[in-house]
User: What shape does this take?
Amino acid sequence: MDDLLLRDVRPLGGRAVDVLVRGRVIAALGSAHSALTEIRCGGALLLPGLVESHAHLDKTLWGLPWYVNEVGPRLQDRIDNERRFRAASGHDAGAQSLVLAKAFLAQGTTRLRTHVDIDTDAGLRHLHAVLATREALRGLMEIQLVAFPQSGLLRRPGTADLLDEALRLGADVLGGLDPQAIDGDRRASLDLLFGIAARHGKPLDIHLHEQGEEGAATLDLLLDRVQALGMEGRVAVSHGFCLGDVDESRRAQLLERMARLRVAVITTGTASRPVPSLLACRAAGVCVAGGNDGIRDTWTPYGRPDMLERAMLIGLRNNLRRDDELALALETVTSAGAQACGFADHGLQVGCRADFVLVEAQNLQEAVVARPERKLVISGGRVVARQGTLISSATIAGSTTGA
Amino acid sequence: MDDLLLRDVRPLGGRAVDVLVRGRVIAALGSAHSALTEIRCGGALLLPGLVESHAHLDKTLWGLPWYVNEVGPRLQDRIDNERRFRAASGHDAGAQSLVLAKAFLAQGTTRLRTHVDIDTDAGLRHLHAVLATREALRGLMEIQLVAFPQSGLLRRPGTADLLDEALRLGADVLGGLDPQAIDGDRRASLDLLFGIAARHGKPLDIHLHEQGEEGAATLDLLLDRVQALGMEGRVAVSHGFCLGDVDESRRAQLLERMARLRVAVITTGTASRPVPSLLACRAAGVCVAGGNDGIRDTWTPYGRPDMLERAMLIGLRNNLRRDDELALALETVTSAGAQACGFADHGLQVGCRADFVLVEAQNLQEAVVARPERKLVISGGRVVARQGTLISSATIAGSTTGA
Assistant: This one.
């Protein structure tokens, strides 16, 4: 692969520089370089590749006819409805996950963590489907699969074996779901989960919708196990709604332990319920990453595969108005996302993987609130999208030659 | 003006029809019409003109260099900061309000209520500026001005006289701001406000940020005055945060009175604080309209002059997922907005003003969540924007001839 030179870009809104890419990595930032392939960027804002920390690619109906949502309001209604819908519709998790992953890439997301449903009805069907999507996009997009027991673990015997098998087949992370509210026994559920994760040496990412003290008690036990098993820096809590509605002293106690054990929070900034405060988490030293959760599926009609829009929604939810606060919102879908998920070599420093998003914006703050068109997306040193549209697969498979 | 025929549109996602426009109004819906000017719409979704019920056109920095926000977190910090900024910057409320109003129109908003700052520093400068914008867009966009005491009423003597003068000069609505939290005397503040409104026979739209029982007590006194002065159907409460955090029985009591006195709620669906529940308001028979509040000003970096995006944000805040609920989200920026503000002849029925927005969407629900490009905006029977861009002022001033 020839060297690639991006002329006249402003990394995160800083002063204009040229960026030299050699192979798949950033070789230099500065000026007075040259390369066979040069792209004149006209002072555009340069962002690192965006990071989606919480997707459900396998569920999406993106691009399909409108799904008429008449689902009941409880979590259990949504879980049951989805399982019924899937059995009846012949939902194609392979095709759908690929369509949505590509749409994410076209909008500048080069690393993505997706939960993949595993249950005793569907078995490992979704896992195989999303493994194929991961393979199809290898080199263009780094995709992590979380083996996710959407219908519960203890409550549906046989699920643990499926999760075990999923990790053996290549799932990157073990998922979990409401050890108390869904599984009914936080201690047994967490022991089982941590046991499987430890056996495979895999990280954990646990959906925790449980609110108030119910969730806090689960979180306490979870943190005990992180500590006991030496899993510091390898566990994330998705949603963590309880951190949004316990009192301040309880929250401080939980956040202090999470910071110490390097347990990250992955948030969508849900507008309709209490969520972990981004500023409180950051002040305590807890990493906060951003994710979309489901996009256009049987759970929700909302969503767009655009991490800048997610950063905006997280900003709105957390009332982030100041410039320094908007920078934190962007971090949830860049550096903090990479940290929470363990994506290596992310960033705009020499040696990092050459993943870039170019937009017309005065600064990173404007990029968050305006969510401008992605002029150019570069992944692993190759141009993969222009003006928000993926360039043809043929070109993606080949090497970049033009400006 | 020749008749205009829109061929093959789906009003609110219903079956395809042709819409005949005669002069400024809808003359017929059905088929087998013809007209000199026809536009083939290819089955696009037809929405009525969108309604913005709560803007601050005079404050916006839309299109200007990025405003670095380092403002403190309290309401009073933001009020003081803005007054200082204005004194120092020579902010041009005329040019700015026109730029933003046109941007709203390009995205399909044909009726808009804007609050206009009036205080003893700036006097009526903003009022004159926005009156000029209203005049410049007359016939294209119906703009209501609310004379708004942003810096308080009682606390800044001389303000009441300015409000009085503003109504005399052509402001359509009298505004107010936190009679207790800002003015410090809810009874005296409300008496003064209602007195001015009654003297001019104008409606009222009062910003009520006050939370919990503080706001509820103000709302009680406000409702007393609506009843005593026979102002049913002519008063709106903007924000009404207290309705989001008093207990259910207190809320029920307030909503019951509001429904009876036809006092509307105007909400932005603020994600970061308690807000009135759209479903609870609707169940009680209270009209709920949607507004953006400030867009890119010294208060907030966020916002886009797009009422479909505002409907989405209101939907997210209220956890509206079902199809029937998304229809309610759209109503906040269409029929309910028109009702709350008293915009006449709004809708897609024969006899209504011919204000339309055409988008590519399967149904109204998709229009809310996807916020698609506005293919065509028609205001008062004339094409004013295509593909989200206003057609040139010359063309706007003339009559439509092409398809």
Observations:
- The CA atoms of residues 385 and 391 of chain A lie 5 Å apart.
- The two ends of chain A are 15 Å apart (CA to CA).
- Chain A is about 35% helix and 25% strand.
- The first helix of chain A runs from residue 75 to 89.
